[in-house]
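Let us walk through a complete example step by step. Step one is to write down the protein sequence. Step two is to encode the small molecule, NAP, as a SMILES string so that its atoms and bonds are unambiguous. Step three, shown after the inputs, is the structure prediction itself.
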Amino acid sequence: MTQIINKAIVMSTRPVGMPKLADFSLQSHNIDSYNLTDGQVLIKNHYLSLDPYMRGRMSLKKSYAEPLQEGEIITGEAVGEIIASKSDKYPIGTFVCSMSGWQTHFVSHQKSSALYPVFNDQIALSAYLGIIGMPGRTAYLGFKHKAKPQPGETIVVSAASGAVGSVVGQLAKQQGLRVIGVAGSAQKCQYVKQQLGFDECLSYQADDFEQALTTTCANGIDIYWEGVGGRTLNAVAPLLNEGARVPICGFISNYNDTNVAAETPFQVLAKLKPTPEHGFFLVSDWLDEYPTATMALAQGVIDGSLKFKESTAHGIANAPQAFIGMLSGKNFGKQIVKLV
Ligand SMILES: NC(=O)c1ccc[n+]([C@@H]2O[C@H](COP(=O)([O-])OP(=O)(O)OC[C@H]3O[C@@H](n4cnc5c(N)ncnc54)[C@H](OP(=O)(O)O)[C@@H]3O)[C@@H](O)[C@H]2O)c1
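Step three: the predicted structure of the complex.
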């Protein structure tokens, strides 16, 4: 093998508000596998992960990570197969996850901390980007460290049908909590209740959402898993019990907001008396626990106690459309792009 045509999606212009297709462009360049240096591998990606945090990378808003520059490949994780190798550690044929970005091929060094092998062939390759990848670990580790769950408590989980929320709710059910999901449509709510086993799921798009949440949580809310902000947070806030915990995983309703005066969850929660325990966390706060979390999640998938759903776009050219869709709830489950 010599020349490979790599296709990549770059951020051609920095999006303002909801990203548009014109903010992205598809570019091609050649990779010569003979040019690999010692320790390098060439990966052919099978699946790309599309995640809400990528919208933050496209913005110049203050963040924990450096922003992308115009013309750069969109950041992101992928899973694929090594098709050329100058590494003793990763021979040709090894399946790996890497921080490839949105592209069909990627050259990585074996020493990259973001490169790791797929470890179980009983599990679909794409799941390494979802339930047993970064989103699953976010749910597992954030819930373990920040939610402080007690059996019998009531937890409300936002973005309940999505990559992170679906796992949080299932773990909470396993630990004896009463689990109320919130999602964007009746179809998603039905899935959350019937397939994932939540006790209830309400649509924040419904006219009577606030009233329905108040009735459903007649004894208040002990834990609110925050992933969305906006209307859901405003409905939850007055129902939080004394001693409530609010792990802030994200607030997607704010990510495309151009209104600088829009309230963040920190502002909404800080005004409450008593103020619930709350704080933003990153999954990478617990890097040393990744192996344990990943193994526990993988075990749950294998024994059927953890279920997941994926939304699959096909072909790298369709990644921008799928990403835009995810930011408005068109995905139903973990959003991935199938390349092979
Ligand atoms: N802190 C961390 O380390 C970390 C790691 C991973 C993810 N996160 C955060 O966790 C949250 C969920 O991420 P995910 O990967 O699991 O995504 P996801 O839930 O699979 O997909 C995003 C979902 O957000 C919902 N959404 C979109 N716009 C919304 C709006 N304006 N108001 C309310 N909901 C909206 C949609 O679901 P509906 O149709 O139900 O509205 C959409 O399906 C995000 O805030 C993300 O940034 C944080």
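Step four is interpretation. The pocket of NAP is lined by residues 51-53, 135, 138, 159, 161-165, 183-184, 188, 227-228, 230, 249-253, 281-283, 326-329, 331, 334 (CB under 6 Å).
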